[in-house]
Amino acid sequence: MSDHIPMRVAVVGATGFQGGAVARLLADRNHRVRTLSRRPEGDRPPLPGVACASGDLGSAEDVRALFEGATHAAVVLPLVYDRERVLRYAQHIAAAARSAGVRRIVYNANTRVPRTTTGVAAFETRRIAEDVLRESGVPLVVLRPPVYLDNLFSPWNGPALVNEGVLAYPLPERTRTAWLSHQDLAEAVYAALTVDGVAGRTFDIGGERGLTGQELAAAFARSLGRPVRYVPLDPEVFEQGLARVLGADAAAGVAGLYHHLAAGHDPLLMDDDGGTSARLLSLKPAPVEDWVARRPWQVWAEEAEGGDR
């Protein structure tokens, strides 16, 4: 599809980090973007060029209104891991996309999904949504990213990384992970919306190569010009901290995949796919060092200094 033909894209999840990156990229490239949010208008993140209506994925009518007139859709679900709620959300999206005559849905599962069922809600609810969207009959592209680099540029990681040289994350040190940035995710979604010949495919997208924890720390050290060491964080500790921000249910859902990997299951789940996805989608994810170099890490040092006074 030509970039010169504007798409009308229904972006599910645009008020979140990953969906927001997609919505901003689409708007920057002069495509018409609409989304839906339960948040009050004053509590939504700024999304220039994106029309945002009040509504809920649990309402079939709200979702149908979002998709009216849309030619394409980009979907990432909220941090909900209740099977029945996710099933209902996916059914509403599928019905609305089919009714609107959407030409292609790109579904970001927001995680890799193991080949076999696991009993882990973080994986299985995303598998359920994928199945429902595939059964809709609307051409579908599925993206399964690993872990986001942007998780590391946060109040939970930034200060320790900048001030102590400690990069702590709830992945075993030996788990090779193809870390991906939100920006490269957005580029992948855009490619999946526009590249010919990819409908019906599932892509384990990721960074240029899988890195162990120590290799990730070494990439940070090279870019920051200072020693950095990787410390595997106990998933239970991670979950407890996340619960204070997201609530217990969402934290348990997110942490489920880290518990799964810490137990030694699927050691290659988060690794790169040998460049297959990048090649087919004509992508070139940025090296970790480049991503690190573009972040204003000094904000965490400044916050720490301010807190000491």
Automatic annotation (TrEMBL):
<comment type="similarity">
    <text>Belongs to the NmrA-type oxidoreductase family.</text>
</comment>
<dbReference type="Pfam" id="PF05368">
    <property type="entry name" value="NmrA"/>
</dbReference>
<feature type="domain" description="NmrA-like">
    <location>
        <begin position="8"/>
        <end position="242"/>
    </location>
</feature>
<dbReference type="InterPro" id="IPR036291">
    <property type="entry name" value="NAD(P)-bd_dom_sf"/>
</dbReference>
<dbReference type="InterPro" id="IPR008030">
    <property type="entry name" value="NmrA-like"/>
</dbReference>
<protein>
    <submittedName>
        <fullName>SDR family oxidoreductase</fullName>
    </submittedName>
</protein>
<dbReference type="InterPro" id="IPR051164">
    <property type="entry name" value="NmrA-like_oxidored"/>
</dbReference>
<keyword id="KW-0521">NADP</keyword>
